[in-house]
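To whoever is on call:

I kicked off a structure prediction for a single chain this morning and the downstream step that reads the tokens threw a length-mismatch warning. I double-checked the sequence; it's 96 residues and nothing unusual in it as far as I can see. Pasting both halves so you can look.
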Amino acid sequence: MPQAHLYAQWRETVGPLRLNLTEARVSNGMVRVGDHVRELPASHHIQPCACTLCRARPDEERVVRVQAIGSRDGTVYLLLPGAYECPAMEVERVDN
């Protein structure tokens, strides 16, 4: 029998991201739309971890531009390429 948590009806409904902010605090400062950021290794992953977040990769693959900034349930998110919503405190600002 399939595991119940794999079915959509068992997942908690997540409201839409409100794109209502112009800047956000990240791990090493502030960012605005258009700034470059790099996602930090996932501290909650068991190390060593080989996921795309924790794996060492060249900066040209890891550094992305912030497309929008919003909030949901009191947490600030950065909207990154591919419609990826990343909590702001899980990235660092990259100065070019």
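Update from on-call: the warning came from a stale cache, not from the record. Cleared it. Sanity check on the structure: Helices lie at 59-62.
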